[in-house]
Amino acid sequence: MSKAIELHTPPGASGARTFWSVCAAVVFLALFVQAWIVVQARPEDLLTGAHGMADIISRAMPPAFDQFVPNLWPVLETIDLAIFGTVFGVLLAFPLSILAAANVTPALPLYYGARALIGVTRAVPDLVWALLFVTAVGLGPFPGALALAVHSVGMLGRLFAEVIEDMDMGPVEALTLTGAGRVQVLTHAVVPGVLPSLLGIGLFRFDENLRSSLVLGFVGAGGIGFQLLTAMNLFQYQTVSFLLIATFVLVTGAERVSAYLRRLFM
Amino acid sequence: MSTPFSASGDIPLSPAAAFPAAGSDMPGAARPAVRASGVKLAVRDLTMCYENGHTALSNLNLSVSAGEMVVVLGSNGSGKSTFMKCVVGLNRPTGGSVKVAGRDLAALSGEALRRARLPLALISQHANLVKRRSVLANVCCGALGRHRTLATALGRLPRKEIEPALGYLDEVGLLHLARQRAGTLSGGQAQRVAVARALAQRPDVLLADEPVASLDPEAADEVMRLLRRLATEDGLAVVCVLHQPELAARYADRLVGLRSGLLEFDRPASEVSSQQIASLYIAEAS
Predict the structure, then answer these.
(1) Is the complex ipTM more than 0.85?
(2) In chain B, what residues touch A168 (CB-CB under 8 Å)?
(3) Residue B18, min C-alpha distance to chain A (Å)
């Protein structure tokens, strides 16, 4: 071994590394075993339940394509839930992220306040927000849209703040030294610097919200989810399979559109 | 757009010979008028002690007049950057004064400091342009301090600054790139845009903190020629921190040597020997 390598590899380092690797493997295995026990995993049940699953699948065939027209409105509702939730999420999250970004926040109390608000809105799942809003404003798509908007504020606020914190501060300092005011620096240096990243994150969020809006229907927040729940409760499996196909097309289409738009902006 | 200094070639050693006096026929749609003569930057007994007890600057005195180009030399840790930061108000000195247009920046803070340093423009080692905006928009941003309106707060550019901004771009020889995205420029071009942005601020004093440190020799020469011309023709007081003694000797009217926060010399460039410059660095190393 050359002297240079010896300098970088102290004696015993290799043995210590092996020891810690074994420790890490043991810890990982222990975690997995306890998870297996806690979730009461029974793979044999999958085999015995295969017959029931096959029965449902056979009853779901062929999909009820005649349900296309009656479900157009719920599909539109699902898309609109995601649009409403994303737009309001972005509009509320952006100012909050400015306050929550350590490098541009105007004051420390505002920073902590914004971080706390982002934390709360993010920690409570959108399903729980939907239940709360259903209680407050009744059944329908509106509580679902509100739930998506509030949860998006938390998710987007955090990501936006991280993008702002990672941005190149050179232009910000340069503009500050020209005598520009705080808001001018924000609109002329911070926003142009981070806008493409924020748009990309917003479009990702639209993807997420579209998927979430399907689930929110299960708690009475409208859209395809609500139709899916109704069809399952009425044992209309052919309608269920059609709605699953519609969901697949919707989610995949939204992913493609969002990926295209991200490429356009970035 | 070509300028009299855009072509590469031999640079005469005497700045006066190389750069004609103010009023010569220069292209530039909105080239500012030559500033009034007199001392534009007066630094008196400037002292900066950090909280850890380190004295970065000690009783530094320096005056820079309109039309003068002063280059500050010194090794790393000699206090050059601290000096620049104290002058622009990024660091509050522990003693002394920094007077620009008769106002002591060292005694001001907040909004008063922001207003007082409007006649002072800074160019850094990196151009610090907003890469996704056009070159023209970047230059216009230099004028934002004079246009604190709702429209500019909402991201609009001050309309009446567009014509002058084109003039400043013409002055730095980049008018043809006005509509191009700043992110597509070369290092030398970006630095010249940064100079144009500084000009849009309409300063009396132009500070340049290692403006050519990340540029190749040709681009560095272009930027230094530009700074020299701004001093000679536009009457700006230019203070430039450099690590290249040969560039300093070629372009400066006066050389200022700093060592361990103390002023070693402040003399006309022609009176400073290469040994004196070298001693700034050798002494620091030993």
Answers:
(1) no
(2) 128
(3) 30
